[in-house]
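**User:** My hope is that you can spare some time for a protein that puzzles me. As I understand it, each token names a local backbone shape. I would be glad if you read both lines and explained how they fit together. The protein I mean follows directly.
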Amino acid sequence: MKKLIVLRYTLLLLTLAAVCALPALAEISVDATLSHHSYPLDRAARLTIAISGTSRNAAITLPDIKNIRLHSRGQASQINMVNGSITSSITHNYLVQALKPGSYTIPPIQVTAAGETVSTKPIAFEVTGPGQSSKAEKRSEVKLEDIAFIKLSEIGEYYPGEIVPVTLKVYLSREYKTDISTLPSLSGDGVVMEQLSSEPQQSQETYQGKSFHVITWQTSLSGIKTGSHPISFSLDATLLIPQKRRSRSPFSSFGGSLFDDSMFEDFFGNYERRPITVKSSDLVFTVLPLPAENRPEGFTGAIGDFDMTVSAKPTEIEVGEPITLNTTISGSGNFDRVEAPVFPEGNSWKTYSPTANFESGAGAAGGKKTFEQAVVVKSGGVHEVPPLQFSYFDPSKKKYITKSSSPILLSVKAGKVQPLAVAVAPQTRQQLPSEKVETSERIQGLSPLHLDLGEFSRRPQTLPQKTWYLVSCMTLLLISLSALIVKYRQQRHRNNPEIQLNKNRRSQLQRDLDATEQAMKARDPARFLLLCRTAIQNQFAKLCEVEPSAISLADIHGKMEPGSSLLKTFSLAEQAAYGGATLSSDDMGKLFILLKKDLEGLSC
């Protein structure tokens, strides 16, 4: 056993000796590199001499170069073992300082290691005056549009109000560090852009042989007037430019700290922040006029591709009871121009203004818009809901299209309430027999007979003839009748369109106020003013039976007193939408109290 242990240790020592000998037996190679081949006099370059094949100290013979000083900045050793192969290297670092501008060459440097001498290749470099750039640097200077730019997917010719899905990309060179300060904005008259998301897609792309970090938004454009409109996109950003540490005076001692080396400058993030504006190339957005030929009478400006479905309930009603009419228009297009189909006029119907609800769908222009409208049958001669029509312009087919719904059959009964008759059995009066029966007749020869029949009892009464039973029945009947009347009034209340409109208005106001209060608590003045504007539009739209988007500052000015707080709030929100908002928390709190008070007491 002892011999076996000794043998194992012997083999282990021999293996370690062989491993240690491998670096010494490996072939030695030397490589010298310079960090900058052109730099100003007030800076320095880093010279790196890498010696492979040895992990021990190597003797380096530095050349004498006129007006050049080489300052040692330490060395580092490394041994790697990969798949049984052992490699070793040692690296020496030097700072190259020039005493005056000029063109220089570092001659071959001799390195001796493990009894072998190897020389490096000569390195040429240029030193310019303090703060100056070399000719090579001037030739290699890049333009801002090569570092960051904006590209937009192809655009062409469209119609007023048409929703045009586009892809907006911001390219940022990966060779530079760039901080984006704002979202891209559109410049140009006659074209509007959908609000961009604060969470765009991010990816990496190669463009014209260079690597870029790409930020992508899926948005849409829409022309608001005809003509050819020049447009462009831009955003504010900050370019981070690495700043070199200012070199020591050439005549001072060069025995400073290791952190004077430029290799540590990038690590510690010493950057100059330079504001820049990233721009796109100039583009032209052409808006064509809609054709006047064959334009339907009910066309409201809807452009896209739509479908329409119409339903009604209930279909079995009495005269005077309301019907809820639901119209859904789905597809892709400018839903802000989609309005409810006009219900045909007639003496047999009473109609109320519809309410609208929009749900976005796939893509920038996809979705569906649902209209709910109350209609009331006024006569018993109505048997169906008449067809409804919706017209739009299809840009792909370049023509107007009208969709019609099918008539909906109804069962209408005459609305009469029959009074309930209560039949009560009359109480029969009972005739009681005489208590005594007298006879005046005498029977001759016999003593007269005296018949005493005694007292007769009353005839027993049945249950319906008893007073307490009749009172109980009448009470139960009155209770049942009252319950029916209450239920009937509640049903009429629920189906009353005006009451429902007021209820919807109060619910919408509460939702708007809750959202506005959240923006106030988040100290977001821009969103706070936007929600104030939306709340005012929603209330005026509910009360005056128009679309919220149709409410403008002019409309409010015509309905409110000049000093109204609602008018001032709406005007302030309009200005903030274009110029930003600077409201303080106290200002938002005061404005919110006034908004709530005025909207709750608003009437059209």
